[in-house]
Amino acid sequence: MAGTEASINGFHDFPKNSFQSWGNYFQALMEIPHRLLDRIMSRSLDQTELVEVKAESQHEMKKTLTWWDLIWFGMGAVIGSGIFVLTGLETQSHAGPAVVLSYVISGISALLSVFCYTEFAVEIPVAGGSFAYLRVELGDFAAFIAAGNIIIEYVIGGATLAHPIAVVVIFIICILAVISTKASSRFNYVASIVHLIVIIFIIIAGLTKANPKNYTPFAPFGGRGMFQASAVLFFAYVGFDAVSTMAEETKNPARDIPIGLFGSMVITTLANCLLAMTLCLMQPYANVDKDAPYSVAFQAVGMGWAKYIVALGALKGIASVLLVGAVATTIIAFFTPLTILANLLSVSTLFIFMLVAVALIVRRYYVSGVTTQVNRIKLIVCLVLILGSSFGDGWIGYTITVPILFVRTMGLRLFVPHARNPRLWGVPLVPWLPSASIAINFFLLGSIDKASYIRT
């Protein structure tokens, strides 16, 4: 953590005479451990990301976006993905009507992560997003690991959404995204308004056919199934981090980013929970269709015509999410099963969100040249203990580890002095909030099957 504050230029140049003799070559080999350690421990600076990295692009991004734009981008990035693609699968296979609580749990985890992302996006408003944040606080090596997961997140996320409509939609969306951020923002307004109208229609029309008996049994697969579904359905909240990468194009980051991120996440969480509740009231969980849950549910209650409205909403939701995170994902979309894609996406995303929460604690409690060696060691020990106490095996395990997590976070709060306060906007309740984010992300990661980690 202490390491060298490295510039963006990367590796030190190897000695030019390294290969001129066997002695020089041997000396160069002996320096490899030191060079690797230097790269692992090196960290970037806020100023480096804000000035030097931006200057390398030789093109200043136009600050055209407001909090209103960011709310719609946030909803476009998130709403419609998990709710239309995975709700049916998880309702029938793992959660039953308790899928509503699965969405609540995932939403809480996402909201905690939103807090952590917001402070970084306000303090370091650059297009690099989590990669830049981690490079500043955890160093180049952690940022490199995160970069691989970020690529997985966007590629698999796009592939998961495009699975029904692979090639054509991705191609069109890429063209729209390339034309202009503001133009794609306007398109997203219209598309998201249409989508919200469809969501409201599904909720109102669906509740007219509600049968409370369909909520019995509420959790047929028990708590474990509910949390397993929650880990997969975290996919429904993936995408909000893309909003933080737009900080460089935002007129007033200190005001617009918090409003944009929180506003879009609250609306998204409410919409997901209401839609899931409506679906399970319309049909017994065992009859919910895995591939087209809402269309089949309306068909089953005698409103077959409504499935065309549902299809419009699903297509819009998928298209707008791809607009915010378009990548060349066609081949993956064609040949990989949906369940595998969803699990891989959740693993990568939860891991990145956990790292960002760790980075926030480091940002508040460690400043190079200011924090003493003793306090640096205390911080490292506290972080290791917090990470260690975030593991648990089922409810019994967590009744032990959660109190331990509380005590260790209290130790960080009492024995390690703050080294830096946010300049413009800060996460409240530090270190409690980022510590809780670390814990719940680990909890959800532990609910994902072993095979997904092997594939990752």
TrEMBL record:
Its main location: membrane. It holds the Pfam family AA_permease_2. Keywords: Membrane, Transmembrane, Transmembrane helix. It comes from the Eukaryota. This is Cationic amino acid transporter C-terminal domain-containing protein. It is found in: Membrane. One of its GO terms (cellular component) is plasma membrane. It is a multi-pass membrane protein. PANTHER family: CATIONIC AMINO ACID TRANSPORTER 1, INNER MEMBRANE TRANSPORTER YGJI-RELATED.
